[in-house]
Every structure is written in C-alpha cells, then in structure tokens.
Write a structure and sequence with these properties.
- The protein is α/β, with parallel strands linked by helices.
- The protein folds into 2 domains: 107 residues, no CATH class; 211 residues, Alpha/Beta hydrolase fold, catalytic domain (Rossmann fold, 3-Layer(aba) Sandwich).
- The protein is built from 12 helices and 8 strands.
- The longest helix has 28 residues.
- It starts with 6 loop residues before the first helix and ends in a 9-residue tail after the last helix.
Length: 343
Amino acid sequence: MIVEPTARPRRRLVTWVRGHPWRTVGLVLLTGFLLLNLLAYRHAGAMLHYSSEADRTPTPRALSNWQKAKVLVCGVTVPRPENTRSPEDLGPTAETVHFVADDGLGLEGWLLTSPSPRGTVLLFPGYAAPRSSVLTEGRAFHALGYAALLVDFRGAGGSDGSANSMGYHEAIDVAAAVQYARERGLPGPLVLYGQSMGGAAVLRAVAALGVRPDAVIVESVFGRMLGAVRNRFAMMGVPSFPSAELLVFWGGIRAGIPGFDHSPAEYARACDRPALVLHGAEDRHARPEEGRAIYDALTGPKELVVIPGAGHTSVLTAAPEPWRVAVSRFLAQYAAGPLGTGR
C-alpha cells in the first residue's frame, strides 16, 4: 500500500496520541487554559477601554445565540459615552462646570442651582454612561428643592480619558466633585447619588478616600466585581467558572486595580453616613441580594427600598412614584438641613 506524504504526519500524530494519552490530555487542557486567558485578556480590554466604534454591543437579552457566541469569542464593543443632551435640558439656570481630579484628569459636569436650595445633590452615572443619563434624576432632585451637580466620570462625556475601572479609580472623581462643591460654596447638606458603577465609586470614595458627605443614595449597585462578572455570564446562559475569575484577574491587571478586592459591599462597612439603598427587584446585572449585602454592611442610619418590576435601569424611569416617595422621605429625614460640616 502506498501512503500519501500528507498522511504520514497525521498517522505519526495519531500514533503518538495513542502512546501518550495522559500527555495528550495535559496538552489539551493547557491549550484550553491558555486560550481562555487570551480571551479573558481581550474581554477585559474591551470592557475597560472605550472603543471608537459607534455601535455598542446590545444587552444579553437582545442577542441571538449566534451573537452571544460571537461576543464570547470577540468581546464586547463599548463606545466612549457621549452626552446627547445639553445643560439647557436641565433648566435655564444650568451651567457647564470644570474641575480637576487629584491625578490630573480634567472632569466636566452640569450644575443646576436655584435661589434658595435646601442642599446639593451630586449625581454620578453608571458603567459606560455619560452625565446626561442621570438628567431625569437631576431634574427630580431639583424639583425637590436641591441644587444638582451631574458629573461625567473619567473617559466619559466632556471629561478626560478613554477608560474606566468599574468604579475604583472613579472614586477619585467623586472626591474631586465633592471638593469642587465645597470650594464653590454650594449649599449643604451635601448628598451623593450614584447609579450602579457610580454607586460603587461613591462607596469607595467614602471608605478609601475619606470623603464625608452628609448623606448617600446608591442605586442598583453590585456587591463585588467578581459577582457582577458572574451575573453577566449567567445572562449569556454559559457557565461562569473559570472565565469570570480570569476576566477579573486580567481586568485588574489592565486597569491597575485589585479586581478581586473591588467590593462595594466591603466599602459600605466604612460608611457611617445616612444612606438609602435603592434596588430593582428584577435586576439581573446586580441582583437584589447584592443590594441587601450593601445595606447590611452600612454602619450609619440606613434604609433599603426594593422596587418591584424594576431591573438594572433607572429606577425613577421604571417606577417614578415609589422612587420619589423613598427619596423625598429620606431627604426630609436626613438631608433637609445642616447635618455637619463634613469634609
């Protein structure tokens, strides 16, 4: 029998595999592990560094099975968040303001004031979102009698940069906004409001940077970075282990943060300020039990409100009346007058 030249290497490979089954298994596992690391490295970069492409990858619920498979291999596309509104959308007294974070990055915001505000609320948006995403909340706080400062995190809108760190470095932006508000002489009490990643940044600013607001409102915040990544895999319908762990590891390397230790639930232990925790009962990105963990860890006066029917979105948009009732009650109790000089 004549053996074709191209068949000889194939036969030698089959012979070697049959003669070394355990080595073969080891090589297959090692190759798979290296490929998983490569994919995790790419995914981490895609999630933490904003793209110049215009179209963002849809949410897992909106993806077909084929699209989900493509995302798992190629990663997500997250364009740089840009504001689609103007300060005039807040009201005639709104203005664009600028200030600088301690690490030198320039930050931008919108400030809405009134002649005699009852206090000032600083608003911080979620992951890959500009300040215009909390415009509805800014109006709502203003309607309750408060000045409102809507802030673009680093990498978003009018602020410098092109990356995010899931709320870790953004805590520096929270501290800078608080310093700006105090130097500007904005009236107290000073309330920090953060959605999702914005809430994580608020809690870290209080825990790690010594920020001392008069009250805190956090909405739809994840308990741990690892948990947030696991939730995303669950929504894609695929097992999270060990991919979630690898993604957090490489994400920490690429963002320069301790990914496994990035935990708003742990930061909350250092927050002794009056705090309101808002969470959607149908939130799958940050599950209600994560909001409960943050609430349980808080050490000051606190309240937890879980809104039926709301997911990982603006709770005010999903359930306007429950949001307004909870927020107005909290502000009336803890932020309707001077609570102290803060820091």
